[in-house]
Amino acid sequence: QAPDSFPPLRSEAAVRVLRGRMKGIQGHCNSCYMDAALFSLFSCTSVLDSMLFKPFPLCDRNVQGILRDEIVNPLRRSGFVRASSVMHLREQLTDKGQCSSFTNAEKDPEEFLTLIMQQILGIEPLLRLQSGGQKEQDCYCYQIFMDQQEDLVVPDVQQLVERSFLSSDLKLVEIPSCFIIQMPRFGKEYKMFSKIIPSLELDITDLLLDSPRECCLCGDVATLECS
């Protein structure tokens, strides 16, 4: 355990600490969905560090302490987290949640994030979405759904998000404080994309509801949108 707080890894430090053998979060007993989510959320960014420290209204301090001291701090300090630490968190999630299989079964990352953010820590939803002018929906992450598209062989995240929003007729009601995106799901037998290129920046201008945008013909403020 690492009782002190460590900042997220940046640039050369991230490469030095996280690259090589015995680095990252050790997998065990179908923990890959949680390992990947925790690594993405905390290794190199502080956007969600409030999860580690802030006394939210429903916050379970025991779970918060395990997440901070046994997983995030060791990951940032030495680049390695033991499987037993993740299992400790999974056992607590099993006790706090309504599902008894968090310690042995593979789960959808969205199920894990909703449980720990909403039920255990009591964090307000991170995203507000609207579909086809209907009622707004609050959620913690966005999962990309889309049909196979032959012109996308090695897509980047920007392309996937834009096409997914278009196909589902979705808009962001407001600029999110944190935009967690789950890539297209695949199983052992089928992969929609063999590779996805990370977009280091994400342009959400066209995804925002009622956001002033430039007309592509005259340059003035647009009044109509063609999907």
In CATH, the topology of the largest domain is named Cathepsin B, Chain A
Helix content: 25-40%
In the CATH hierarchy, what is the superfamily of the largest domain?
Cysteine proteinases
Low-confidence stretches: none
Helix and strand element order: HEHHHEHHEEEHEE
Description:
GO terms for molecular function: cysteine-type deubiquitinase activity. Keywords: Cytoplasm, Hydrolase, Microtubule. Pfam families: UCH. One of its GO terms (biological process) is protein deubiquitination. The chain is mainly α. The chain is built from seven helices and seven strands, in the order H-E-H-H-H-E-H-H-E-E-E-H-E-E. The strands form three sheets. It has a three-stranded antiparallel sheet. Strands 1-2 form a two-stranded parallel sheet. A two-stranded parallel sheet has the order 5-7. The radius of gyration is 19 Å and the shape is globular. The model has no long low-confidence stretch (mean pLDDT 89).
